[in-house]
Specification:
The complex is a heterodimer of chains A (501) and B (169). Chain A starts with a helix and ends with a strand. In chain A, a hairpin with a 5-residue loop joins strand 20 and strand 21. Chain A has 501 residues and is mainly β. Chain A folds into three domains: 97 residues, no CATH class; 176 residues, no CATH class; 219 residues, Porin (Beta Barrel). With 169 residues, chain B is an alpha/beta fold. Chain B has one domain: Glutaredoxin (3-Layer(aba) Sandwich), CATH 3.40.30.10. Chain B has six helices and eight strands, in the order H-E-E-E-E-H-E-H-E-H-E-E-H-H. The radius of gyration of chain B is 17 Å and the shape is globular. The interface between A and B is large, with 105 and 65 residues.
């Protein structure tokens, strides 16, 4: 029996189970007090290029009784979004059983874990980034008033495949890396102070045959006037070491944040399994976000300072500065940012933001204005305008060049659970449309446009959520916490459909 | 194609299933380092769990409205558990963010999104309203202006039915 048939059979069973539940039971409780919950999400795009066509779905089903819960996830990726060169997969992706009683928690199967602030280990899922580096094994946690303990053992999933693995048939639950064992002990003598240690052993890696030991110590102080967190991590592989410090200070209404990091060879040889703090501003606007730095845990050091101040009940001012260098002192990324939020007397919400970013390629100056108004009866309007001016220094191939990008988004709320939005982007970047490049690497077009519309609707008591996008959307990097994915250009339709029990 | 049709059938079946479900218990640290357990806070009025993050634009707009709702109904027993799913990269910004925006409700830290996943969250914001018996009565993903009015109606209906619930107990 091939994998497609197994998937089809499993989904038929779920359909039958859910329909039976709906027809013959009260609520979601089936026989012997077993509760059934689940959700299913489908994302589909049809487009003019094969790299932007995809069909993916995730169906989670959970059975719980008293303190026990069983979970299974069926996935279909034909092909996965943003990784069209990757082989299609379908089948059982997650399977776990868990027991939770008071302060004790035990889970076997697929699980996620974060030790400290992620200098040693962070396994997590982020569907926007198509990131999932879950572990397959077991973990146990005990939470006591004065101490928390977590121990784990598992095989991590490789979240990004190498070029030689992309076209290979891989199992639905992904390629697994060698086992790792470890844990964290956190002592809490008071609610203002905690400290602890982390240890993690990883077995020999297939490429290098290197086993490694990682350890860390951390200290956290929480006071009404501020707080402090510090973590120092080491690994015996390549003499790696990492330091992360953060401090909050509250002076009346003014809140200040300072962060520092120095990471040297603390990345894993295979698979990104730790994800230490980035220490730069995480931008919320599309154009600012496109220029974010992709984190390198092997050679980065830098700091961030941020200040926030509510000028009144209706306005807040935020500003920040961050700088990242490599160990040779070479500037990798610099970001200056300021934002002012204001609610006007008509109930409108305004945001003005400006930022300057500099990376290894060039400099980017940004301006953002956003306004939203509520007209009652679920009718609303939100307009956001983003402008970016990019300037690149002379290189061996090109003389100094510059361009600007602008993005206009209009979101209209029509009724409860129904909204439409329009998106228009304009760029004078000669590389914005790679299809129209001449032999001399300059574009035939001076102006490039992308226009699209989107409908968002929820229905059936909010158990169905649908988003339908039609039109063009520009290729661009999307980053969350230093982990990025490049979404290819889309010219066509994209549908996201989610249902929940 | 067959599997897609089956999936769509699955989705249709989901819509016909009733929504009431017991809220899963969890324990999370608050901003002062104390552990907060959900089960110890059920039964004294409606509890609204709201998952958000400092990097989420609709979350900020929703929290502004939640602040007003909380001020209006807190004396009648409404509790708002505002759970941030900020990861290790942004969790340091949470205290300052809460301070500058003057959020009055309980803030909890779910740094690796484990409670978010327990409640089947995929993208924030996610709001879950729990009644006196620990049952989920309303669930809403995302935020668009006006959504808070629907939420307020559910909260009001729970506050109005509160004496009945106590009688049944």
């Amino acid at each position: 029996m091939n994998i497609q048939r197994i998937i089809g059979l499993a989904q038929s069973i779920i359909v039958l189970l859910l329909c039976t539940t709906a027809l013959y039971s009260q609520g979601l409780v089936i026989g012997n007090g077993v509760e059934v919950t689940g959700n299913s999400s489908l994302e589909f795009a049809t487009a003019d290029t094969s790299e932007s066509r995809f069909l993916e779905s995730w169906t989670d089903l959970f059975l719980s009784k008293n303190d026990f819960r069983l979970g299974v996830r069926l996935g279909v990726h034909e092909p996965p979004a943003f990784f069209s060169n990757q082989d299609t997969t379908s089948g059982i992706e997650h399977l776990f059983g868990e027991y939770r009683k008071g302060s004790f928690y035990l889970r076997a199967g697929n699980f996620y874990s974060l030790l400290g602030r992620g200098l040693v280990l962070r396994s997590f899922e982020n569907r926007t980034l198509r990131w999932d580096n879950n572990l397959r094994g077991a973990k146990a946690e005990i939470n006591h008033r004065y101490a928390d303990l977590e121990i784990l053992a598992g095989e991590p999933r490789k979240a990004r495949l190498g070029p030689d693995e992309q076209a290979r048939k891989t199992p639905a639950e992904g390629i697994r890396l060698p086992w790792m064992y470890g844990g964290e002990l956190k002592l809490k003598p008071s609610n203002k102070l905690s400290a602890g240690g982390i240890f993690l052993h990883t077995e020999s890696q297939p490429q290098s045959d290197n086993a490694s030991n990682r350890s860390a110590a951390f200290l956290e102080v929480n006071l009404p006037q501020g707080g402090f967190y510090g973590e120092y991590a080491t690994t015996d592989l390549n003499d790696g070491k990492g330091l992360y410090l953060s401090a909050n200070l509250f002076l009346g209404e003014l809140s200040l944040l300072g962060e520092y990091r120095n990471y040297e060879n603390i990345g894993f040889e295979e698979g990104l399994l730790n994800n230490p703090p980035t220490v730069f501003q995480e931008h919320l606007f599309t154009l600012l976000n496109r220029q974010q730095l992709i984190q390198n845990p092997n050679d980065e050091r830098g700091f961030l300072i941020e200040a926030g101040y509510p000028l009144s009940e209706y306005s807040v001012l935020t500003s920040s500065y961050s700088r990242t260098e490599n160990k040779s002192g070479f500037l990798i990324y610099e970001d200056i940012f300021a934002q002012y939020e204001h609610d006007d007397f008509l109930g409108g919400e305004w945001v003005w933001a400006t930022g300057r970013q500099e990376d290894l390629l060039g400099r980017y100056l940004n301006w953002v204005t956003s306004a939203s108004y509520d007209f009652g009866n679920y009718k609303s309007l939100k307009l956001t305008y983003e402008h970016q001016h990019a300037k690149f220094p002379e290189t061996a191939t090109f003389s100094t060049r510059q361009h600007y990008d602008q993005l206009l988004t209009m979101e209209v709320g029509l009724a409860s659970g129904l909204g439409i939005s329009f998106l228009g982007e304009h760029s004078t970047d000669q590389f914005a449309d790679l299809k129209s490049l001449n032999d001399d690497l300059t574009s035939k077009k001076k102006h490039h446009y992308w226009i699209g519309g989107q409908i968002d609707a929820t229905f059936a008591g909010e158990r169905f959520q649908t988003t339908l996008f039609a039109g063009q959307r520009r290729k661009g990097k999307v980053c969350i916490g230093g982990v990025c994915v490049v979404k290819p250009e889309l010219e066509g339709l994209e549908l996201i459909f989610t249902a929940r029990l | 194609m067959k599997s897609v049709i089956l999936l769509l059938l699955t989705l249709l079946c989901f819509a016909s299933v009733a929504q009431e479900k017991t809220a899963d218990d969890f324990s999370l640290p608050d901003l002062e380092g104390n552990n907060f357990r959900l089960s110890e806070n059920i039964g004294e009025g409606p509890v609204l769990i709201n998952f958000w993050a400092t990097w989420c634009i609709p979350c900020k707009a929703e929290m502004k409205k939640l602040k007003l709702i909380y001020k209006k109904y807190k004396d009648q027993g409404l509790k708002i558990l505002s759970i941030t799913i900020d990861d290790p990269k942004t969790v340091s910004r949470v205290r300052g963010f809460v301070k500058k925006n003057r959020y009055p409700f309980t803030i909890l830290l779910d740094t690796n999104s484990e409670v978010f996943q327990l409640y089947q969250g995929t993208y924030p914001p996610l709001s879950i309203l729990i009644d006196n018996n620990g049952k989920i009565v309303y669930r809403h993903v995302g935020y668009r202006k006006g959504d808070e009015k629907k939420l307020e109606k559910y909260i009001l209906s729970l506050l109005e039915s509160k004496p009945d619930v106590e009688e049944r107990r």
